[in-house]
Amino acid sequence: MIPAIVVFIYLAIVLYVGLFAFRKGTGSKEDFFLASRSLGPWVFLLTVFGTNMTAFAILGSSGLAYQRGIGVYGLMASSSGLIIPLTIFFIGTRLWSLGKKHGYMTQVQYFRDRWECDAIGTLIFAVTALMMIPYVVIGMMGGGHTLDSLSGGWVPYWLGGAIVAIVVMLYVFFGGMRGVAWVNALQTVLFLCFGAIAFYLISRNLGGYDKIMAEIAAHPKDSALLSRARISPQEFFSYTFIPLSAMMFPHMAIMCLTAEKVTSFKRTVVWYPICILLIWLPSVYLGIVAAHQFPGLKLGESDDVILRLLSENTDVVVAGILGAAIMACVMATDSQIMALSTMFSQDVFAHYGGAKRFGEKVQVWMGRAFVIVIAIVSYALALALEGQKSIFDLAIRFGFSGFAALAPVMLAALFWRRSNKWGALAAVLWVVFTMGLLWWLQLHSDGIAPKPGQAPVPIFTELGKLFLRTPMNVTIFGYMPVMFMCLGSAFWMILVSLVTQAPSRATIEKFFPSSKPGH
Amino acid sequence: MKIKHLLLTIWVLIVFALHQDVWNWHKTGPLLFGLIPPGLAYHLGYSVLATITMALLVRFAWPAHLEEDDVRDQAPTPHKP
Question: What radius of gyration do chain A's Cα atoms show?
């Protein structure tokens, strides 16, 4: 119970930070939704990183490492350490510049202008908003599981999720983007500091990691966790497409608009890989240690192994502080709620006449109302989906793959002036179609899914290895579908843009001012 | 394309390719410092390499024109707090 109390104290501090941000706000929409585009380099780095560190990164990665070994670090963390900073470098800086120049507050506002079409903006809004919801739900689930574990069941899952939902809702409601940014920066620092302490204390209590690793290496079954034997080379390669999702996540794109200067990005892109290393290394490592300590957990059950290690190997107060640090990452869901609120109020309410009719003040209050609605809907979904799928699985299938496959749309908009709305439409429809197909294939093959460690099985025997089912996912010739989704999206973007009319000269001159007509 | 940009592009592609360390696939030892399996040690080094890569891009390929645009647009920007 004591760890849970420490977490409650932490939640109260977070709430205070959000309310303090409210007192610093000016009340304008630019201030509520984008913190007046005023974040300095360090806060920007910590916020962008904290925004991207979610329940998935901490609980999901350790749970997956428990099942599949050290390869999880290379699978997700080290590839993200290169690809995400690259996307921030090439896409984030451009988005920031466009936002500053044209007053954009969301990606969709930019797409509507760039593609000279309201409808394509609305379609992208609908697709991205739908794909964001599961991501927010993961945060709620993570909060529920964390409080449940830390309190030894005294705070049940449903209550833990409700507490997280209410706290996040309140500080986003009052503090807006400034509250989210400050809380994220605080949370990132907390996690980095206390994560290191947790790592040390667990080691000390277990007699040293060298001893545990030697035991795992000598164990006939567990030794596979020290290699990549449980991950195929095809899956390992195709996973490198997943981090392309980073800049298509609305919360990441909107966060890029909050920087005060473009130079703020320099520190972020250089330090991002190291930040990822500092978070993921202990998470993956502890997942393997947990496999040795608590053997036999199934896929969905292994998501809270890091919390079990904390509870059993540290002092109760320390466990609480460290649980609060984990909670910090779990609650990165705040920026997603903030992003969805910004999208609803700007891309729908303001765009369809609300801004002109009701003015700026009502826009801000609409944004706050959306925060409440999104939090309640996400919490309800977190209750309904409890225990059905692992956090990691849910995130990958419905969030990361879809957003990654939309990356070619953003790249074309920013760097290829010949690209047009028809190409964008074709690419988005391709993403929607493939996600629907994957959803169906996943459900269709649930009954034949092999157990961890077993070979993939064909979903349709007559199609050979075209569609294979692994313990968690559907693959295409052994590769993750995200690879084909991204390549297909790029293909349709290019092909359809080339065979349809180019954007108007005015649009090209607006977004590519240095280009000469006819080029 | 300038030589500088060409070299940086090649560098980034090489770093991307280095992620696929198939030679470490089934190695479980020797453990680095008795703690870190070889496949994990390699990817820790890879994370450091990613940081070096980004530092090189910031140093030699920074989109300076965006800074110039910002300075030029400072005065008339209506959204400046």
Answer: 23
